[in-house]
Amino acid sequence: MKILFIGPYRQPDEWGHTSRGILKSLSLIPDVSISSRPIFLTNQTSRVDEDILRLELNKESEYDVLIQHTLPSLMVRHGSFKQNIGFFPLETRNNTEWDNYLHLLDKIFVSTLTEKDCISRELKEKTFVVGGSLENVPSKQISSPSPRFIFYFLGGSLESKTGIDKALEAYLTEFTLNDNVTLMIHSYDSQKCGQKIEQTTKDLGLYTKFSLYPHIHIVSDQPPEYLHMNGACFVDPSYTNGFKRDVATALSIGNPPIITNHTSMTAYVNESNGWLVESQEEILVCPDRPLSDVFTAYENCQIPNVLSIRKSMREAFEDHSGYTKKSKEAVKSKKDVTLEKHSESLREALCM
């Protein structure tokens, strides 16, 4: 079988990591020739390893299968392929605007069952859940939390859909300066992150001085892996679905995460290896994304409950034995996100 893969695998963001994982998993399928071509959803680029470069140089006169990892509105919907497959994250529910694009595909690949549930009923029969994978997972010794308990949040662009506002409000209202805790926030825009923190403290109005709030440390000169290796509990009360590499990484190295319930990563996170935050489904009417066709007023998302986040953070901080048990269980999920398991799921979905 000859497969042409199109995706943003040269990007340094979540899209890029996911694309590279798909490519590497496809490459493990026996008797398959893979060719790849990059596309770009942003203006950021990163280097790729030699294995992927070889796939770019691989050319065939014709292909049996086209796999496109991008937004449905950007997908090629015609061509001489036996299978035209779309692979994309379904971040929100009730997105019927994409149906016109998806009807023209032969198959739809999604990472989790929650995402499949978001697909329109008439498209479910050709939708396949193929999971996700991690390229490399660093080793981290499992131990009880250090005297200063470190929560960490990977802010990225600091969009509201990441749950940054809810996480900050929960942390700043649950803990005081007397609690031996730190919240590390990763953001490449430290100034914007600092302004958001300062504005949140002003809105809360709990103390007259910023210095009286619990400790927050902005990390902008290190990669996200730095926070995984130095943190104890990953806080990710995001509103959206999709396979999240950072949640999977936190689990795999033994950092039990706090995530929003009824979102797709509950396929990997439960109360034995992390904390599920209560949430309610709401219509998303205030998009803050540069891609206008991602969020519209027709879509719904899960809004996390701040009190539930506070409760989870307090338990992670105070219940040392419970934290250790969750940490040990979290590491076991590493087997669920291997390239080999992802490859097998893709092979089955391709009907090979």
Task: Give an overview in words.
It is elongated and about 70 Å long. The chain has 352 residues and is α/β, with parallel strands linked by helices. The strands form three sheets. Strands 2-1-3-4-5-6 form a six-stranded parallel β-sheet. It has helices spanning 14-27, 50-57, 99-102, 113-118, 164-174, 190-204, 224-230, 245-252, 306-318, 320-332, 339-349, and strands spanning 2-7, 33-38, 65-69, 83-87, 107-110, 127-129, 149-154, 181-186, 215-219, 233-236, 258-260, 275-277, 279-283, 300-304. It has two domains: 2-134 and 338-349, Rossmann fold (3-Layer(aba) Sandwich); 149-336, Rossmann fold. It is built from eleven helices and 14 strands. Strand 4 (83-87), helix 3 (99-102) and strand 5 (107-110) form a beta-alpha-beta unit. 31% of the residues lie in helices and 19% in strands.
> What characterizes the major β-sheet?
6 strands, parallel
User: How many β strands by DSSP?
Assistant: 14
Secondary-structure-derived class: alpha/beta
Evaluate the radius of gyration. 21 Å
State the order of secondary-structure elements, H for helix, E for strand: EHEHEEHEHEEHEHEHEHEEEEHHH
Examine the secondary-structure arrangement and name the CATH architecture of the largest domain. 3-Layer(aba) Sandwich
Would you state the CATH class of the largest domain? Alpha Beta
Helix content range? 25-40%
Low-confidence stretches: 289-297
Total domain count: 2
Distance between the termini: 9 Å
Report the portion of residues in β strands. Answer: 15-25%
Q: Label the overall shape.
A: elongated
Q: CATH H level of the largest domain: which superfamily?
A: Glycogen Phosphorylase B
- Strands of the biggest beta sheet: in what spatial order? 2-1-3-4-5-6
- Give the rounded overall mean pLDDT: 87
Number of helices: 11
CATH topology of the largest domain: Rossmann fold
